[in-house]
Amino acid sequence: MTETQPEIAAALQRAVDLGERNVQVAAYLGDELIVDAHIGPAGADAVYPLFSTSKAFTALAVHLQAERGLLDLDAPLAEVWPRYAAAGKAAVTPAQVLAHRAGVPQAPAWLTPQRLGDWEAITTALAEVEPLYPPGTVNAYHSLSFGWLLGETVRRTDPQRRPFTRFVAEELCAPLGVEALWFGIPADVAPRVATLDFPDAPPPPPPDAPVHLAVPPPVALMPAVFNRRETQAAAVPAVGAVGDARSAARLFSVLAQRGRGLLDPARVEAMLRPRPDVDAVDVVYGRPLPVGAGGLWIEAPGVTAAGRRGDVLSHPGAGGTVAWAELDHGLAVAICHDRMFAAVAEHPFAALGEAVRRVAAEHR
């Protein structure tokens, strides 16, 4: 455990002054843990739902399989999952899914918290859907489908055919010493999960909004769903990871160190490339999203100066959770919390991002 630096403590207090309750922050410079701090009554051992920050870890698993020669990101997904060729999807590639351009953002409409863990039924349903858009032509954020499509790809390319959750635990977490990150929490971890709140939640989108196809209302990315034990226990690779900031930052340290021996540096560098038409409106969320070709964001809005496009790989999660890697500095950072927010006048974690960078500069 590192000692909380004064600038980190002040930035955490600023987040609380802006409405936060429990916040964790961790940062690695190379392999050194240089920041490990928290504020709030939940304490240092709390873990948090990470929402779409989960997609970064799923993308890492996919790239690991590609690095091992077990998966060609530009070959049809149906080569490893023959059933996926149905309904006009024979040419869909893992690379298109990573870039949210496969044309299949829709999740099964019948999803409920109780059925989020039904991997076989969900992946079977996704194999049968018809693309909403011609694959490779439209930016359409695959909020939930991203995870199951890529998670099933990892499972099918694993010579041991391990469940995705076990693959992540054994192939990503264990080699890095990550002890507190799960896709589906064990029962004994449940008491440590912080309770989410969203006091200023915006009104839900209109009933005909495309986002409802990507995230059916019964499994909306809101506290009422993600505070449920069924949700936390389910393997939901796009949005379902639960963990602490130290674990998330450690996984991002692979990216910050340009692969750290797990991935070729050229593969990590390629993740910095924007997806095609990156500045076009994403049809699911109605605004441009800075998604890269490798499945991560190429900016970290709100927590790095001007987003720092060019050397940053990040992934935000619903309500403000975020992790990012600054490749030019070898710096990996994660921030977890339990008070979700949307549009704000002052980003609660802006000062925290700056404070972490100052600490990192002192260590270099």
Give a quick summary of the entry.
The protein is α+β, with helices and mostly antiparallel strands and 364 residues long.
Write out the strand line-up for the largest beta sheet, numbering strands in chain order: 2-1-8-7-6
Number of E-type strands: 8
Taking all residues together, what is the mean pLDDT? Answer: 96
Structural class: alpha+beta
H/E order of the elements?
A: HEEEHHHHHEHHHEHHEEEH
Q: What about the largest sheet?
A: 5 strands, antiparallel
Q: What's the level 1 CATH class? A: Alpha Beta
Total of domains: 1
User: In one word, what is the shape?
Assistant: globular
Tell me the fraction of residues in β-strands, as a range: 5-15%
**CATH architecture term:** 3-Layer(aba) Sandwich
Structure annotation, total helices: 12
Low-confidence segments, given as residue ranges, are: none
Features:
364 residues; alpha+beta; Beta-lactamase; three-stranded antiparallel sheet; 8 strands
Question: How would you describe this structure to a colleague?
Answer:
This protein is α+β, with helices and mostly antiparallel strands. The protein has a single domain, classed as Beta-lactamase (3-Layer(aba) Sandwich). 31% of the residues lie in helices and 11% in strands. It contains twelve helices and eight strands. The chain has helices at 6-17, 54-67, 94-98, 119-128, 145-157, 164-176, 211-214, 223-226, 229-233, 245-256, 265-271, 350-363; strands at residues 23-29, 32-39, 48-49, 181-183, 241-243, 312-316, 322-326, 331-337. β6 (312-316) and β7 (322-326) form a beta hairpin. The two termini are 19 Å apart. The mean pLDDT is 96.
